[in-house]
Design a protein that fits this description.
486 residues, Growth Hormone, Chain: A, globular, mainly alpha, membrane
Amino acid sequence: MQHLRTTQNIWQVILASSAGTLIEWYDFYIFGSLSVIISEKFFPPSNPELAYIATLATFAVGFIVRPFGAIVFGRLGDLTGRKYTFLLTLLIMGGSTFAIGLIPSYHTIGILAPILVLILRLLQGLALGGEYGGAATYVAEHAPDHRRGYYTSFIQTTATLGLFVSLAVILITRSLMTPVDFNNWGWRIPFLLSVLLVIMSYYIRIRLHESPLFTQMKKEGKTAKNPIRESFGKKENLRLVLIALFGAAMGQGVVWYTGQFYALSFLQKTMQIEFVQSNIIIAVALVLGTPFFILFGSWSDRIGRKKIMLAGMLIAALAYYPIYSAMDRIADISQKQEITAQYKIESHATRNDSQQLTLQTTRVHTYTDGSILRQTNDKKELTVSRIQAIWLIGLIFIQVLFVTMVYGPIAAFLVELFPTHIRYTSMSLPYHIGNGVFGGLLPTISTLLVARYHHHLAGLIYPIAVALLCFVIGLITIKDRKNVPL
């Protein structure tokens, strides 16, 4: 069916699919990027640490329900088509994100605030569960067989670029107002802006045609009668689903979230790096690393998907502990020498959520390595020197490289694993369990491990163990099927 794929320009297909997927990831990750502020706004203020863990758990709920979205929308995509299914997921995601920006704070509506956030987070997870499989399948079914890894790798950049865009919008919004205004109401703007992005993406996508392979299959009456039963009820296909999950997606999920979200959480909560500086560090590392998704996707067309993905998991598992140890040392105040002559105390008035005027006192410590620690009540913010920030960008960039190795080729790998008539359903479920459950729970599990063992690096136990387990399973079970005809 290769000749069918010339009905639309492949770059038009990639642009439309990638734009929508990027916006959905932006919507999904705004919540994670603002998790520290959200924990203060929507959860009881009596226990800040518990509120933050509750926020991470709410964030994780969006991941946990992604497999259910994969089943619901995957079935719809295999029955009615790829195009209209991921149009629907786009609208659900955009509407939910916009609504989060409108929810009053816990101070205003009490327990109803976290309940509403949870419901909208569930809708976000369901929508994203149906988005990725549709976009990846749609691009793959237009791409030539020998360049499938290359073309689908553009879809793979959207998750990281979505995170980058979320950070960029947050930083721009923060720079246009005072920190107090941003904390009070400015943080809502990135959520509300999503409605404009969704309208633009919907306009681009509505003009696309259906996948030529699906159109031909539907014309010939070969579409699946019951995609869920055929995907998971037949022993042969269920085996492929399990290989995709435990031999690839599980490890890919934890490597993805460790290198980006856990890295951001580690900077802000463990190292206590100042909000703007920590986001800039992550954003720069993401920009530097993004081209490697395409490099490894293209490379997988030549040497195979398996070698690159499994190498990424193994190297990541071996490198995480020394990388995070090096990051931790940069923020270790006990190893820094303070310039006592530059110690000062600043006082300023601010308004809390109930608009009451309060006086805040900030103690400012300056160190010989260029670091500055600002302590306001129990809150600490460390601004590191430029050279230290560059070191942190480098350490996170290395982690992003691991992400690109495991994530760049995986769309092509999953598409090639399953037959066309059940592809949307079959590939979506293992992908979203691997990313949504094993990956999405990583920030919460790692935070709990740190609290349990009282050690900064205890959170790494989880991603290292899962990545190594997936490497072993993948090494034994995966057979490379690069460039097979669809």
